[in-house]
Design brief:
By secondary structure, the chain is α/β, with parallel strands linked by helices. The chain has helices at about 15-25, 35-50, 65-80, 100-130, 140-145, 150-170, 195-205, 215-225; strands at about 5, 30-35, 55-60, 80-85, 135-140, 175-185, 235-240. It binds nicotinamide-adenine-dinucleotide (NAD).
Length: about 250
């Protein structure tokens, strides 16, 4: 099971680190992006410079036709997809529960239920025919934190966890494992303008006494994608320095 890894939304943030880490383990890596081509090409260049193999693929992973074309293009260029990491996210607005609309829910479910489902359906036939595969979803510990204003995001992350466990049961007989890595707050590019006092207040609540790094999420994804995790499925590993313990 040393085929390609497909990481969605991998031109920046956690996805870029996950892509670099999986490539460092020797896998060809598909760096999916929308719309940041230059950023995606930079991730590919980093990987190539380090001796790995990667290519950038433009696709809206919430669109059925795009997902079908994406997986076909990845397989044509990098070979069969053995590892799928649905990582992409859209905006995560803070909205009071009394103001949340059904469209707000759909916006989150589109990323955390629709897109992973489309991707899973596109890669699983190949994984089955090759005797196995790995799906590593990116969840969030906000599901337990129940943060005010984040009900739509948290509910969609809960739905994503439920999907993961059901898929783990259904796909287990084909040696396809399905797990979730649930990060705590891991500052990435989109958090650059965050008030440092807010970061400090969060940090003080973390038992390990510091903010986590994207590399620490990528390490756990790489573990779940590796042979060492071959008997782990339907699990959720929270990576948050102990901030919330489930
Ligand atoms: N960073 C954190 O603190 C944190 C915490 C918990 C969970 N997460 C989860 O980690 C994952 C990555 O988050 P991040 O913080 O790196 O976000 P990010 O915004 O840095 O990265 C998301 C990427 O997805 C891309 N994208 C958006 N719409 C897309 C689409 N339709 N098709 C393809 N790509 C698309 C964006 O362009 C971006 O490159 C998400 O699932 C998020 O919920 C992040």
């Amino acid at each position: 099971m040393d085929g390609a890894a497909l990481v969605t939304g991998a031109s920046r943030g956690l996805g870029a680190h996950i892509a670099r880490r999986l490539a460092a383990d020797g896998r060809p890596v598909a760096v999916n992006y929308l719309p940041d081509r230059e950023d995606a090409e930079r991730v590919v260049a980093d990987i190539t410079r380090a001796g790995g193999r990667a290519a950038a693929f433009h696709a809206d992973v919430t669109d059925e036709d795009d997902v079908t074309a994406l997986v076909a293009a990845v397989e044509a260029e990098l070979g069969p997809v053995d590892v799928l990491v649905p990582n992409a996210t859209g905006p995560q607005p803070v909205i009071d529960a009394v103001d949340v609309t059904w469209q707000d829910h759909l916006d989150q479910l589109t990323f955390f239920v629709k897109s992973p489902t489309l991707l899973m359906q596109a890669v699983v036939p190949g994984m089955r025919s090759r005797g196995g595969g790995r799906i590593v979803q990116i969840g969030s510990d906000l599901f337990e934190r129940s943060a005010p204003g984040m009900s739509a995001y948290s509910a969609a992350k809960g739905a994503q966890l439920s999907l993961t466990r059901t898929w783990a049961r259904e796909l287990g007989p084909w040696n396809i494992t399905v797990n979730v890595v649930a990060p705590g707050w891991i500052p990435v590019e989109r958090h650059a303008s965050m008030d440092p006092r807010y970061v400090e207040a969060y940090r003080r609540e973390v038992p390990l006494g510091r903010m986590g790094t994207p590399a620490e999420i990528a390490d756990v994804v790489a573990f779940l994608a590796s042979d060492a995790a071959r008997f782990i499925t339907g699990e959720r590993i929270t990576v948050n320095g102990g901030h919330v313990m489930d």
